Amino acid sequence: MADVARLAGVSSQTVSRVSNGYEGVTEETRRQVLAAMEELGYRPNSAARALKRGEFRTIGVITFGLATTGNVRTLEAIATSAAHEGYAVTLLPVAVPTQNEVRGAFSRLGELAVDAVIVILEVHLLDAVTLSLPPHVRIVVADSDAGDRYTVVDTDQAGGSRTAVRHLLDLGHHTVWHLAGPEESYAAERRAQAWRTELTEAGRPTPPLVRGDWSAESGYTAGLELARQKECTAVFAANDQMALGLLRALHEQGRKVPDDVSVIGFDDIAEAGSFLPPLTTVHQDFAEVGRLCVEGVLRQMRHEDTEHGTTLVPTRLVVRHSTAPPPPR
């Protein structure tokens, strides 16, 4: 900094003000300082600045796996929103979702110097009495039923699922079968509960639930089972990837979509419109989930009033060509 000050003919304090973006420096002086920085190859010491300010401009993200569309898209949205606010993201995947692993993850993030933490929980963890997050840490939780203990941002899982089932019933289907996600998944259980509730309130029978593991391969396996159910004319798949496998199984078994069986998914992945046929699905606004997560931790960092509880991000139905009225009896 002293070298830059000498070359630019200014004080070290002026160099500091320019490097930190403070106002009160004339444009001519700013240009002189920036030119001197470039000539000398000067870069501000971010670690020293962080210690001085008491913040590191970094948000930690703990996630329990990156295999699902929801986790990956949420992480992408968090990183984009954080960058827009001038923050970096430090990612810490946790292979085994246990209390000890959670404690270890927070400890490691503390060593890596982060200002706040966003936890992406795709599995039932905060529902359990045995699992808790460290107190006095700025935390926002995504995709979890954490109640009023934390600040939570989640997609409206139930609302989106009920909209999907209602769409199929409104087309004239007597009932709707469900291809659910894994039992340990919070999102999968929310969607399955909403499926049951919508059918019950409509006075329709609830068929046996069939499970997959979010993958297209599991959707294919479940689809072979569903294809044998001749009374099955409509299926709500808990995600688009399982719906893809389901479409393949129905095709191989001679069940036409949507002439014989209507299929609806959840997520609205980028490829959903290119399925054969293009998939009717529930759109999740991952960008808004990520933005609200970042906004939540920034409010805590700025000591603004924040209330614990859940903010739900609305979904919307995207109707394409995989759903139609049932075949005539």
Automatic annotation (TrEMBL):
Keywords: DNA-binding, Transcription, Transcription regulation. Residues 305-329 are annotated as: Disordered. It comes from the Bacteria. InterPro entries: HTH_LacI, LacI/GalR-like_sensor, Lambda_DNA-bd_dom_sf, Peripla_BP_I. The keyword Methyltransferase does not apply. It holds the Pfam family Peripla_BP_3. The keyword Transferase does not apply. GO terms for molecular function: DNA binding. PROSITE patterns: HTH_LACI_2. Residues 1-53 form the HTH lacI-type domain. PANTHER family: LACI-RELATED TRANSCRIPTIONAL REPRESSOR, LACTOSE OPERON REPRESSOR. This is LacI family DNA-binding transcriptional regulator.
